Amino acid sequence: METPNDLRLAGQFCDAVLQVEDVQFPIHRIILSDFSTYFQALFVHQITTDKVFHITLVSPDIMQIIIEFAYTGSVTVTKDNVHDLMVAADMLNIMGIIQACSNFISEHLCLQNCISIWQFTDICPSSELRCKAFHYIMEHFERAIKFKEYLQLSVLELIEILRKDALNVKNERTVFDVILRWIAHNPKEREQHIAVLLSKVRLGKTSIEYIENNVMTNQLVNLNPECQEIVNHSFQIMSSLTKHKHKPLKSCLSDTPARPRLPNSVICVSGGKKQRYASCDIEVYDHLVDRWIYIRDKLKDPRADHGTVFLDGCVYFVGGYNLMENLNSMVRLDLSRHIWQEMMHMYHRRRHLSVTILNGFIYALGGFNGYVCLDTAERYCPETNKWMVIAPMIEGRRSASCATLDGKIYICGGLTGRYSTRTAECYDPETNQWTLIANMNICRSQHRVVAYNNQIYAIGGLSNVNPLKSVETYMPLTNTWSMLCPMWIQRRNFCLEVIEDQFYVVGGSNFRTKSYHAEVYDPYADRWCSISDSNMTYNGMSSCVVSGIPNMVDFAFPRDSLPLFKKSRNV
To answer: Which is nearest to 444 in space by CA: 426, 418, 462, 417?
Structure first.
């Protein structure tokens, strides 16, 4: 049976011709009218005696693709045709092609083109693509500005970027440097914008020394009265913050030069147990303002002694214990949509398991099934929603901890029976084999392990009956462990995560008391400091770092609610 496209190609029953430059395309008006409101209006309102309809502003090659899409429903988008095709589809109101082009461009977003793509959405509107491109700029700003395309931004576009809380910069000095470079690219036209741009720099988040030595000494700033007002206002805020740092006042940071931007990453802590009660709460730590908040999303079912990982915009909650049975279930929370989904169950029930991510797969290792310490391990593929059993560990382990480094998984310590162990082993996914590595200096269970700077860190835990505050690090190149500065307090069953070169620990217990106290470790200074205390005091909580999501505002402490002065905490 012949299709409409076969009839078109054979020239049968065509009742109109589209004239594009010097090329004619015989078509069926009913097909194009049903496909686009533009053609529907064209055929109704344009009067022509020879049934030839002239189309301008579109090349013959692009019109050929559009017509084929109208008849077949398929389109081939390439780097060479995507921009012209999307502009034409927008002009002709062809939503299917607009979506196909938008998807193609989204897949090819990179540091070099994100700004030009965002600008392109002004010419060819696509709210979805515009949001993706803008989020990409926000998240990767410090790397994107290394490419010269940002110098082509208009002043309004630059203001739109710099004013956002979501702009991901480690230091506001970067923002001021970006402004100076942008002005220097075309000084005659751009120097007039120095004041409005300087107002987008959160000078209150820098230092008085920086402002005096780098901002006030700049000739454009120094000669501009509006800039001087901005600098003076920043000095006033910074002086007040220093003078009243121990006094909680009702003033708010909103709309001040000291307003913090949104974090690119937050720590998500979930579940846990207290006596006969298991928690459904999820709490988030915002390190830029040193604040903890509960989020509106709660676990549908309570979990403790479970594992948590973040992957592709979702938090996965794996295994654990609900005070009635050990679990093999896994659920995930889609953070952008705030939707819970039940995923494929593991092969084994696992409590006190170890979880990690490697090469886009979720690994669940060891644990306790209610009877024995498990040596089994399995791997989950998000694309197929299936678990696969991998090689068993050399030793059965519960209450161990693992991390990934250089394409391998390291699992350390745990209970292999009644007692804590010093042993550790490494998994190579290419060979599907486990290998023992050097023993830790101290037996550890209910501890935490993290990979950082080509090393594995083992922190705290339990050495048989003694809670620990000790820290040691493993160097794969030398296969050796070394001791580091201990934590402030002993703790076991706590949470440990790394954000921006800092190690954050929270929760757990030392047998006698649950720990509200949280602290942070600087691996370069080998020093621990106190941070704000968590509201959750459960044993068996689990944590992960959430990063790079477009709706981070939903998981950060509200910037409009930040007090100007915050009472300090001491250990």
So the answer is: 462
Tell me, what DSSP letter sits at residue 149?
A: G
The pLDDT of 153-160, averaged and rounded, is 97
SS3 of the chain: helix, strand, coil, percent, to 5: 30, 30, 40
Integer Cα distance of 332 and 309 in angstroms? 9
> Rounded distance, CA 378 to CA 395, Å?
15
Check: CB of residue 282 under 8 Å from CB of residue 328. no
In the block, tokens 């054979």 appear at 10
Predicted confidence at residue 564, as pLDDT, reads 58
**Average of pLDDT values for 307-328?**
96
Phi and psi angles of residue 134, each rounded to the nearest 5 degrees, phi first: -70, -40
Distance CA 557, CA 287 (A): 10
Q: Is the pLDDT of residue 107 over 60?
A: yes
Give the pairing of strands 408-412 and 401-405: antiparallel
What per-residue confidence (pLDDT) applies to 244?
57
Name the residue among 371, 372, 363 with its Cα closest to residue 411: 363
3-state SS, residue 512: coil
The domain 153-243 having CATH identifier 1.25.40.420: the answer here is yes
Q: Which two tokens stand for residue 20?
A: 């594009």
Q: Which fold has domain 4-108?
A: Potassium Channel Kv1.1; Chain A (3.30.710)
Element (H, E) at 103: helix 95-107
Asked whether the domain spanning 153-243 has the same topology as the one spanning 4-108, the reply is no
Domain 265-555 has CATH 2.120.10.80: yes
Within a 10 A sphere around the Cβ of 308, how many other Cβ atoms?
A: 24
Element of type H or E holding 460: strand 455-463
- To the question of pTM greater than 0.85 for the whole model, the response is yes
> Confidence band (pLDDT; 50, 70, 90) for 569?
very low
Q: Is the pLDDT of residue 254 over 90?
A: no
Alpha carbons 269 and 309: distance in angstroms, whole number: 11
- Tokens 């000291």 -> residue: 258
**pLDDT, tens digit, 9 for 90 and up, residues 490-538:** 999 999 999 999 999 998 887 665 565 889 999 999 999 999 888 877 7
Length of the chain: 571
Residue-averaged pLDDT of the chain: 91
How many of the other CB atoms lie within 10 Å of CB of 427? 24
- Strands across the sheet with 502-506, in order? 495-499, 502-506, 518-522, 527-531
Query: Would you state the pLDDT for residue 391?
Result: 98
Residue extents of the structural domains in the chain: 4-108, 153-243, 265-555
Q: Which of 208, 285, 303 is nearest to 500 (CA)?
A: 285
What local confidence, expressed as pLDDT, does residue 570 receive? 35
